[in-house]
User: Fold this.
Amino acid sequence: MNDIAGLMERRRRLLGPNVPTFYETPVEIVRGEGVWLWDADGHRYLDCYNNVPHVGHCHPHVVEAIAKQAATLNTHTRYLHQGILDYGERLTALFGHDLDTLAMVCTGSEANDVALRMGQAVTGKTGMIATDNTYHGNTALVSQLSTRRPPIGGYPPNVRRVPAPDSLRPVGGGQEVQAQAFAQNVARAIDELEAEGHGFASLTICPFFANEGFPVLEPGFLDPTVEVVRRAGGIVIADEVQPGFGRIGSHFWGHERLGFAPDVVTLGKPMGNGHPVGAVVARPEVMAAFRQAFGYFNTFGGNPVSCAAANAVLDVIETERLVENAHDTGQYALARLGELSHPMIAEVRGAGLFFGVEFVTDAQLTPATEFVETVVEAMKARGILLNKIGRAGNTLKIRPPMPFSREHADLLVDTLAEVLETLPA
Ligand code: PMP
Assistant:
């Protein structure tokens, strides 16, 4: 029997208090394969949450690529090595417009840190805008945009947060005006930044608004906003850490689905299937301005092993047709979730293998936060790992590894139906 309390105590002592874990009683995971995880007691869980093992836990092709490269060479990034060039050419070819250059890093936070500095380098200004219910990472600079905990001393004056789009409670009061209202809020923030002397450098946006609760948004939603940003001389940063690499099924990138062309794209989590690698992809003149201004160097970013891992991930996405699978299985799962009948279900939404269900307690759309917590725990007890998201944490967040099949979707939805039947509404 594994000793969860003992592990928690050792963590508290060694790592300090308040280190996030999932679930009232966290799980100790010791092995993974495909979409499955096993705990120390041998219990098997269906992983419906984890976008880091993008092509499946411990995929043999990725494992082999990492092992082979690690056995040949791994070193810092100031020698010439073809790995970064081969990968960079392959990655940038996946973008539909002139995003032709890249900087490689180790995490999504680093990627966004670089992207924000690109905004500063291009404009010579410091004003940054993001939504008011988001997370883009943990560096000192990026955490100024992340809204989970305000920075000590509060948000700096060169940061503005605009109301996040919402499916059920749309910005501006209605779905049809939400896109315009969002753009107007960005325009107002830009005016304030200019008036206060910071100037405007960048808008950072997840094109799926993942941490905001992935509201349903039509293609073109960001068009008026992008126009506002361009007119003001700033750059648009698309944080593709969550929707990228085909997760949303219909497209390889989230920004393609909304139909806009960002100046900079940041990548992380799924890129190395668990190996820590991220990237910033940018237009050449943006990259040139950044390199000139900062002389940026990253010891590990783009090392031979990271590039081998990232390259192998692209191999698997292609050979196993995982984007198509995300599309087909995602549609199937959404349709099945849509058949659930429960008085607290307000909306079933998502795209590809990134979907969920928002729960409310009444006609006033009061978030059913505690109820969703109970659902998450009950699902875990039945061997299904998922979690919650959104401003009030009242939306189930389901984002499994990409080889998720219809059979897995059936298990997920059947178990959820069972849980909803047993819990008091
Ligand atoms: N951007 C987004 C949208 C994220 O959700 C996260 C992490 N949850 C990050 C950036 C930061 O990535 P990392 O934890 O790899 O630094």
About this structure: The radius of gyration is 21 Å. The chain is about 35% helix and 15% strand.
